[in-house]
Amino acid sequence: MEKSITRTKRNITIIGIGPRGGYALENFILSLEGKTDLSKINLLLFEQTGNFGNGSVYETTQIESNWINIPERILLLEKRATITFPKFEIPSFPSYHDWIETDFEKKPKKHIDHYPPRAKIGRYLQQRFQSIITPLVHNAIVTLIESQVEEVIVSETYDISLKTDAKVYKNIDEILLTIGHQPTELSEQLLAWKKFASNKSNVTLFTSPYPIVNFLNHQNVTDKSIVGLRGFGLAMIDVARAISMNFGEFTLEDSYTRKCSYQPNKEYSGKMIPFSLDGLPAVPKPLNALMDDLFKPTETQLSDYTSLIGNPTTQKNASSPEFLLKAFAPIAAKIYLQLKTTFYNEKMSLEETENTIIQWLKDPEYKHASILPNNQPVKNIMQDFVAMATGNKPISLDFCVGQVWRHCQPSMYTALSFNACHEDVFAEIIALDESTKRYSYGPPVESIQQMIALIEAGKIDTKFLSDPDFELTDDGWNFHNKSHSETATIMINSVLDPPKIKVVKSPIIENLLSSDLIQMVHDDLGIMTDEQAYVISENEDHFIPIALLGRLAKGTIIGVDAILECYGERPKNWAEKASNRHVEALRTNDAT
Ligand SMILES: Cc1cc2nc3c(=O)[nH]c(=O)nc-3n(C[C@H](O)[C@H](O)[C@H](O)COP(=O)(O)OP(=O)(O)OC[C@H]3O[C@@H](n4cnc5c(N)ncnc54)[C@H](O)[C@@H]3O)c2cc1C
Question: Quick check: 266 and 453 in contact, CB under 8 A?
Fold first, then answer.
């Protein structure tokens, strides 16, 4: 049952206008082409940062040393076609490849992949948004609101309002939440550190790595500072690159392997001390299409994989992610056995390879001669992986599996979203996918070469890398082990929290949860939505027109985080349903 409306315009809102909100808007407008003239729509677009179209991740003024982890070659952000309405037209906008005027089909496969600054992607997204929004604003269809939405209020009679700190917006007919990464509760460790640092002028904690200027411009961060870096992943690389470029420069020494050296300024006597629970580094992506193609499954392999894991009966009967591992292992094993040379030079049978792959995916600590050992200095691990990524060293099984997993991810995300698996099994599958991210969401080779250069220059100290002991002293964080001790006066947290809805600390989500308008999929995951992204609320008698796309929907769907997923099918599905609902509401309204 749903309310009929008697107002002349329907209020449609999108909250959060990053890449996903922007693409959802485009698809919504596109779905209305030929169905209505838009005169009965009042679109309210809320974006708390004012960065409409690009959001905070792709802010255009952020430091250029924040790189995206997807090479331009595969950054397939499709073109938007011209959209025509009776009274006006929305111009087309080029694909990302046309915007950068590069035809990757014409590039030789040896061409080294380029990973642009996130600010450049932001410029693309912002221009794309402007080109759709200008005619919509001109025709009084859209209002842009630079505010944080704090609450979605549904009255007893199912009237919906939105509350910002400045105003209440009433009579809302449709809400799409594309709010991306939300702040979460600080961990116990960070809370204790916050308390520790709060009353010391010489000791500073940054609970978030972004925006990077927050610490770069801080008076306590000087060329003498010893900086602790909590986390050893992609955000740590952004932080370490920014600090080191502030106090010195990198020189490229080999244009093919991207090997570089680091020259600190004369005055830079400080250093950085990164650490994480396992102390293992991110694994670089293959250098170019030539290397990357070695790990690409065939179309047939991918479609067989999709039908195997997408089978509802298999999903329903699964008591663990074993069915997924069994479908994946033969593909990765075949690709590994086809490599000309491998790190382990004994011949392995197909069966042994498949078993080793499954064992290792279940337990990353699993040891086998085909897997690169973790018990060597981190610089050696980084150098070995860089050499594999650039074709200068035979490939280890783990490197191969990580890359094949990445190529299978889009098929897996399609086949496993809205699946028939038990929620605990799906939670395990999501955890398995997360555990591959060290490989499958890896950085460019050049980023790892820079980290190696910083280690060689003594500016990254790896003595305390793996789960170190700390003492909080008057002088700061004292790292110590049997033979070494160092004290950091600055600590930067670079660990981004998982999308666990229970720990999200933002008014809009806390309010939605407390009003029972949304449901959690699983204790460790996000919000339950249907295939068109509408939230499944506890109230089964009344349809609530609230939809959610993106990171917080993890749980009914998988693989929602990367930029390419923002431009996928899901925003289109939502747009189709929301536009049909709009046309239907107008029709009913005209009839009454
Ligand atoms: C630091 C960082 C780096 C990343 N790097 C990469 C990368 O290299 N490659 C990649 O593929 N992916 C990367 N990602 C993943 C990223 O989530 C996606 O690329 C993409 O930004 C997701 O788009 P989105 O629109 O869903 O969310 P976001 O980009 O987070 O946009 C959501 C928007 O909603 C706004 N908002 C939130 N709450 C409210 C509210 N209550 N009221 C009003 N506005 C609100 C926010 O201000 C934000 O602009 C990164 C993520 C982070 C956090």
Answer: no
Burial of 166 from C-beta contacts in 10 A (0-12 / 13-18 / 19+): exposed
Q: Are residues 95 and 208 in the same domain?
A: no
Task: Report CA(428)–ligand 1 centroid distance (Å).
Answer: 25
Residues with CB under 6 A from ligand 1: 15-16, 18-21, 46-49, 51, 55-57, 68-70, 148-149, 178-181, 210, 235, 496, 508, 550-551, 561-563, 566
Beta partners for residue 488, in sequence order? 477
Q: What is the 3-state secondary structure (H, E, C) of 59-81?
A: CCCCCCCCECCCCHHHCCCCCEC
506 CA to centre of ligand 1 in angstroms: 15
- Domain membership flag for residue 568: yes
Please identify every stretch of the chain with a pLDDT value under 70, giving residue numbers as ranges.
Answer: 1-6, 499, 521-524, 555, 590-592
Tally of domains in the chain: 3
Inter-residue contact 246 to 490 (CB < 8 Å): no
Both 526 and 420 in one domain: the answer is no
| Domain enclosing residue 511, as ranges | 11-183+499-591
> Do residues 318 and 422 make contact, with C-beta atoms less than 8 angstroms apart?
yes
The reply to whether the predicted model has a pTM over 0.85 is yes
86 plus 159 within the same structural domain? yes
Q: Say how many Å lie between the CA of residue 198 and the centre of ligand 1.
A: 29
Structural domain contains residue 428: yes
Predicted local confidence at residue 245, as pLDDT: 98
Q: What secondary structure letter does DSSP report for 100?
A: T
Number of C-alpha atoms within 13 angstroms, CB side, residue 178? 32
